[in-house]
Amino acid sequence: MTTTDWRLRARCRGRDSKLFMPEIAAKDKCGRARAICAACPVTDECLTAALQEERGLTYHFRATVRGGLTPRERADLDRQKGAAA
Ligand code: SF4
Question: The whole model's pTM is what?
Answer without folding.
Answer: 0.88
